Amino acid sequence: MSGFHASQCGFCTPGMCMSIFSSLVGADNSKRPQPPNGFSKLKVSEAEKAFSGNLCRCTGYRPIVDACKSFASDVDLEDLGLNIFWKKGDKKPDVGKLPSYTFGGGICTFPDFLRSEIKTLQQHLDDVNITTSKGSLYHPTLQNYTLCGGIFTFLDFLKSSLKYQRYHLNDANNTVSKDGWYHPTSIKQYYELINSTLFSECSVKVIVGNTSAGVYKDYDLYNKYIDIGGIPELSSIVRKAEGIEIGAAITISRCIEILEKESKHMSSPNGSVVFRKLADHMSKVASPFVRNTASLGGNIILAQKKPFPSDIATILLGAGSTVCIQVVEEQRHITLEEFLEQPPLDCTSLLLSIFIPHWILDSPTETSLVFQTYRAASRPLGNAISYVNSAFLGHVSFDESSGDHVLSNLHLAFGAYGTEHAIRARKVEKFLTGKLLTASNIHGAIQLLKETIVPMKGTSHPEYRISVAVGFLFSFLCVHVKGIADPGKTFSTSPDDSVDIIEHDSPLTSRQETISGDEYKPIGEPMKKYGVELQASGEAVYVDDIPAPKNCLHGEFIYSTQPLAFVKNITFKSSLSSQKIMAVVSAKDIPKEGQNIGSMSMFGDEPLFGDPITEFAGQALGVVIAETQRYADMAAKQVVVEYDIVDLKPPILTLEQAVQNNSYFNVPAVFYPKQVGDFSMGMAEADHKILSTEVKLASQYYFYMETQTALAIPDEDNTIVVYSSSQYPELAQTVIAKCLGIPLGNVRVITRRVGGGFGGKAYRSFPVATAAALCAYKLRCPVRMYLNRNTDMIMVGSRHPMKAHYSVGFKSDGKITALHLDLLIDAGISEDLSPIIPSGVISALKKYNWGALSFDIKLCKTNNTSKSSMRAPGDTQGSLIAEAIIEHVASVLSLDANCVREMNFHTYDSLLLFYPASAGEESTYTLHSIFNRLALTSSYRHRADTVKQFNICNKWRKRGISCVPLIFNVSPRSAPGRVSVLKDGSIVVQVGGIEIGQGLWTKVQQMTAFALGQLWPEGCEGLLERVRILQADTLNLIQSGVTGGSSTSESSCAATLQACKLLISRLNPIMNKLRLQSATVSWDNLISQASQENVNLSASVYWVPEQGSNSYLNYGAGISEVEIDLITGAITILKSDLVYDCGMSLNPAVDLGQIEGSFIQGVGFFIYEEHQTNSDGLVVSNSTWDYKIPSVDTIPKQFNVEVLNTGYHKNRVLSSKASGEPAVVLASSVHCALREAIRAARKDFSCSTEPAGTSPLIFQLNVPAPMTVVKELCGFDIVEKYLENLSAHESAS
């Protein structure tokens, strides 16, 4: 991982390593041929699946895929991305340079204390004569497990052994443990337990894997648990003549293995198609971790008891499965359909097993079996629930008289569409049975289906779900009908094409081009990240990894669910969780010298608690304190808040309501962007005009991997130390001091590293740090707060939603003469940094020469959570608005959008007009050459022609391609730095910037080695290892400022360089004297002599950008090609090519990672991430269950990035440029390509979702644009229209 630059913030890296390791071991345990020495049996095509259940917000996944591919037996080493083992372009990369890999994973090593625990545990087990049935889930002896089997195997052993230890050491009946867990080993014991007096007044949960807790969160603690996984009947596997019976406690992963194995061993020539397709579908359910733990029966029980959108229940229903249930002393065998329709099961009934028929006939017949399963979900490889799922089974025969096919014995199952449970479409089955498969009969079946598939009230996207269900049935049936285009087939263009054809199911590939600089070594080299091995091994310490101090308590916020109300009273339900409450801290506990303040910026303050009025849903009302974080989290769920809205105006929750109520924040004149030219005159020059067209952009949650966290420890003399995961410790110190009413010097805030920030750990981190500090100050003991994902998503805030209306004038050739923009920005309840957002929007918009540009921007105050800066704040939205305008103009004129783009590129003179403070010298304006280079290297013109040809050849899949430019304004800020040399020659560096994954520490380390290298005998060789970067400490280094805006790395490097120069000026006289004695002076001798002569070996500076270097422009361009499935709306990003100007990169590997990661985060904003609230403004997309950031299976299939070295820039830090944020806006190329693909579909089906008389080729694609939106814009009724047209032809013929 470290060698492939596959770790940034590092918070997700240990999990990635474990997943990859598990996949390697799994592959090595297979019966595949032996791989070459040093490789695993893993295949390149499996690399992305190895960690499909893992999420990363930093890297964009590409380098992680390459790290995994490097183990694959069929890897082409030249295809691997940038790494430290060989240089790109080496003729024959040497596999020997890769770290050695021992086949089978090698021997895992564990800490001595863990070895001791295992040994002690094994001795306990050996003392007890334990025997198990053949079908038992548990294996208590170590001999059946080898530690080289992998992490997960070891954990399985440890888990099972602990269970057996509890069984056999604590109770004669082998069912009870001291911690409230019960483990029956037979059905009889289970019923004895539930009927005993032990459970009469207890809160009891019956579990196997307990993965349902990730879906339906526990709202209280349980004091009794019954683990039924040890009942042998639930873990049995019985092969029968008609199929296989699988115990309900068998995990989904094991079930997949069983089905795959049984399929291959069937007597049928092709095995059991039913088993094979069931296994394939199940592999897309949930994530590998969940499948390894969740039981097959648990999934079905959940689907029976709750409206759980289970894929497994649907596909087993379609396969004609039956179940065996135990009801007290009676066993019943019923169909799965009957089981799902029963009232919800209680603990008196046990699901024992599921029987799945294989449907293989003993003797040949004239009919053939057809079986297909389908799912529409936001992620192809799983880890996302289905909008709709289905499974269809039947027998098809050929009618010779008509030449058509006939279906019989049909099973048509549908689920997840907003139904209580999966169903069979009985009316449709009856209608189709025995009928000829023609277009008219399929159309009739679809009409019946639409009467059957009726989503429940409150179901999201109901029309989408119905339309996709129709599409699935159509896809299943059409393959048996003459003259119907099969949605499952893709027709490629001419095989003579010189451009590689990328399929939507192709494995991931990539290309990276970087140029390493030699002038300032080791600056400019793609060195691995500072401390990356600690991150990969899990040894890197984040705030929650800090060992809990003695008597440490834990806190969780109580938050409002109302947007505007008086808080009259706060009480708690009587529950087990409420009994764990040790204290509740609220506004009344703020010291009298302090203030109710939770955050602040230069524009205003925000209260810590809503008191006496809560102003938005999600506002903190208090903090619950308990002994553990879990207890605190559970206790907070027991809160009952009494609200009163008497005499209060209605809350303002929308931009329209803000306008109606004139609810605005002021944007200071210094932050309000400048208009350009005369709009009226520009419109008068126009040949064509587009008036008041709307673009909507929704919000985006930060989704850093490490949620907001802080640890506060009170100290002597009225002081406090706070460890905070923060991008701005200095201001956190100020907020805490104000809240507690103590001097700044009494508050020490420490930040070592941050597990991802993206702006969300700047001002939005203050309330957590302040609340923890207040609780610790009040209770006089350490308090830790670590927000769970739900609370974090609800309370923290997000990117600014916007609504824009544009009016634009343009010539017939596409030259734009004037643009006016009316922009509404939702700032939420407080200013935060919102007043700077208009400047970002307009700066991004100005990347084109609009002739004249005017705008009216209103910053709306609403009763929503405060919105704050998020990666490329304002620029991300402004860039999309600009592209929407360009493409609208191109559509009206029927011109190629790229021609319109280039027509409106800046000349250097117009660049000076639009960016007077940051345009720089003419030689630095590289956008034209970048855009041309990208078009050439990516074969854009030819690919565009190929896309057109593809769309002609394919009815149900369409492609689009688009290219967008980038101009991004960067403003470096002042920064402190201190470089100190210790007596032994070690070097410690402190800078104001925080390491949040952007490689700041790495660049500072390189800069230190470069600057001090002139005093090092070997240049800088070996000096890097001497450099240590220290954590941020507000009482150690002041005036640190905020880490953000993409410029903190270069500012910190500039400060480091300045401090090093100061040290060198002090050391040079000593060096000169020593050189009189010896030609070669070692570093250690130099420092020793300087120390003896009392030279100050610590240099502190405060770097301030010079006039002319406080603002500059970054340039880049991106091309993306996408493919959409018209049946489901599914989006595949086939290829993205980026070219980016980094100046002279300080570290090309770091900058490349930042570019890729920010691009993928932008893809999330523009396409996938739906940030949704309820009618009160409370965030409801508050977990990974319903908020989907990009995953490894949603990134571009081909991802190519070129980092340009554009030479000397006199006003830059060693000629470098920023890389952290700008590439986010290049992801708008995916959105634009998506618009082109949708336009191709609308053209083909002549559909329009716009008002009557509007061309179907002109439509608005808002942000985000997930598959539900794509399907809607392509048309919910396209299948019906297509069939109607075919039916008409049938009738005519």
TrEMBL record:
**List of residues binding [2Fe-2S] cluster:** 9, 12, 56, 58
Q: Which GO terms describe its molecular function?
A: 2 iron, 2 sulfur cluster binding; FAD binding; iron ion binding; oxidoreductase activity
CC cofactor: Mo-molybdopterin; [2Fe-2S] cluster; FAD
FAD-binding PCMH-type domain boundaries: 174-361
UniProt keywords (A-Z) are:
2Fe-2S, FAD, Flavoprotein, Iron, Iron-sulfur, Metal-binding, Molybdenum
Q: Which amino acids does the record list as binding Mo-molybdopterin? A: 727, 758, 871, 1045
Active site positions: 1221
Q: Which residues bind FAD?
A: 295-299, 311, 351, 375
Question: For this protein, what does the record note about how its cofactor is bound?
Answer: Binds 1 Mo-molybdopterin (Mo-MPT) cofactor per subunit.
Q: Which Gene3D superfamilies match?
A: 3.30.465.10, [2Fe-2S]-binding domain (1.10.150.120), Aldehyde oxidase/xanthine dehydrogenase, a/b hammerhead (3.90.1170.50), Aldehyde oxidase/xanthine dehydrogenase, molybdopterin binding domain (3.30.365.10), CO dehydrogenase flavoprotein, C-terminal domain (3.30.390.50)
One short Pfam name that applies is: CO_deh_flav_C
User: Family, per the entry?
Assistant: Belongs to the xanthine dehydrogenase family.
Name under which the protein is recorded: FAD-binding PCMH-type domain-containing protein
